[in-house]
Amino acid sequence: MKVIGITGGVGAGKSFILDYLKNNYGAKLLIADEIGHQVMKKGTTGYEMILKAFTSKILDNQGEISRPILAEIIFSDLEKREILNKIIHPLVKSYIQAEIENFRKIEEIKLVVVEAALLIEDHYETICDEFWYIYTKNEIRKQRLKLSRGYSEEKIEAIFASQASEEMFRKNCSVVIDNNLMPNEVYHQIDLIMKNREES
Ligand SMILES: CC(C)(COP(=O)(O)OP(=O)(O)OC[C@H]1O[C@@H](n2cnc3c(N)ncnc32)[C@H](O)[C@@H]1O)[C@@H](O)C(=O)NCCC(=O)NCCS
Ligand SMILES: Nc1ncnc2c1ncn2[C@@H]1O[C@H](COP(=O)(O)OP(=O)(O)OP(=O)(O)O)[C@@H](O)[C@H]1O
């Protein structure tokens, strides 16, 4: 079983590429952002820890942690982001490690893909066989994020500033996917990479 880690900045197209790997190569997916949301739901240890660190001003009307409020705090304040990261990242990583161990017991599962913006910073090389960097120019990422998620220019810039540089991603990833292109051209790149994997 191969474990590929997919990384890149916000809106680079990581989920878009994951969908393709799932639908065309039967990949099992582990998505750090989604797991991050799970491990801070009401009733979890993560929830209690975040509430203690950030106080009840981050709660919504249902008593759940409000992601927009938390995003505003952590993407404009490095210290707060580090506090949140220290709480959430170990929980996410343990969850992912346990899932991978479960997948290893199932012979039919040949490919697992882990998606996280922070694979490099959080040392996922201990879990993944290789890292892929999804490269999309900032201007294109901005356009796509505004269109698909209605993110503001300010929100996008704040998240950009909190994430690794292109240089850092390139230095640490053995495969680079150019996702500035039309979907079919991107799928073609992936097919070539997967074909090379089968042959080697
Ligand atoms: C701050 C939160 C609540 C905002 O949620 P929201 O649904 O608005 O945004 P989403 O999760 O889609 O994240 C937006 C973008 O920021 C990236 N991102 C999320 N957290 C971080 C972080 N701590 N540092 C850098 N980038 C981050 C995501 O990968 C994505 O590219 C949420 O991102 C979160 O819980 N972050 C902490 C968990 C985390 O670090 N996840 C990243 C992968 S381990
Ligand atoms: N090659 C492409 N052509 C056109 N649209 C694309 C392409 N790649 C991604 N998109 C679109 O861009 C948007 C952002 O992509 P996606 O959600 O996959 O990014 P992401 O890297 O997973 O973001 P995040 O960091 O928030 O998890 C989506 O609406 C997606 O459909």
UniProtKB/TrEMBL annotation:
Annotated compartments: Cytoplasm
Entry's EC annotation: 2.7.1.24
This protein's record includes keyword Nucleotide-binding: yes
Presence of keyword Repeat: no
Superkingdom, taxonomy of origin: Bacteria
Enzyme superclass (EC): transferase
InterPro entries linked: Depp_CoAkinase, P-loop_NTPase
Keywords: ATP-binding, Coenzyme A biosynthesis, Cytoplasm, Kinase, Nucleotide-binding, Transferase
SUPFAM superfamilies linked to this entry: P-loop containing nucleoside triphosphate hydrolases
Signal peptide start-end: none
Catalytic activity: 3'-dephospho-CoA + ATP = ADP + CoA + H(+)
Binding annotation for ATP: 11-16
Gene Ontology MF, one: dephospho-CoA kinase activity
NCBIfam families: dephospho-CoA kinase
Biological role: Catalyzes the phosphorylation of the 3'-hydroxyl group of dephosphocoenzyme A to form coenzyme A.
Protein name: Dephospho-CoA kinase
